[in-house]
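Look over both lines before class:
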Amino acid sequence: MQTGSFDISELKRRMQGATHALQHELGGLRTGRASSSMLEPVQVDAYGTHMPLIQVATISVPEPRLLSVQVWDKSMIKAVEKAIVDSNLGLSPSTEGQVIRLRIPELNEERRKELVKVAHKYAEAARVAVRHVRRDGLDTLKKLEKNHEISEDDQERLAHDVQKVTDATIQEVDQLLAAKEKEILTV
């Protein structure tokens, strides 16, 4: 809905950006299960530049606790191994030809709790981002009302709509967090 120069769909889009960022961050958290997204942040020194691992290899999950990295260029195998070791994911690569296998070790209880704390930190950052978007929207509404571009009633109604969108987005953040927390704590 657009009133004056206020567009609530733009606020929704910005809030969804925060939830997408959260999904991406949570996807990178290592749980006890193998996931190709675990290797997304890995950067490989390839051809004189840093490249994401997915640009030099194919990542697959043949078993629940095993990642398989098929390196396309045989000369890149050592660089990919080094990048995986240097990524601080706690994975030790074993190479068979052009395939690098990564066993995902079991997580102990202490590490699980640490990961849950990290997930909570990510979720809180997403909530803060959503609240910033809400504040921007409310500030815009106040400015429009002050400049007599919208009525006070419209401003209050739109502010209520902004709050509803904010509440829904924060609820989505909480659901993402709860799902990830359950995944982490599942032994």
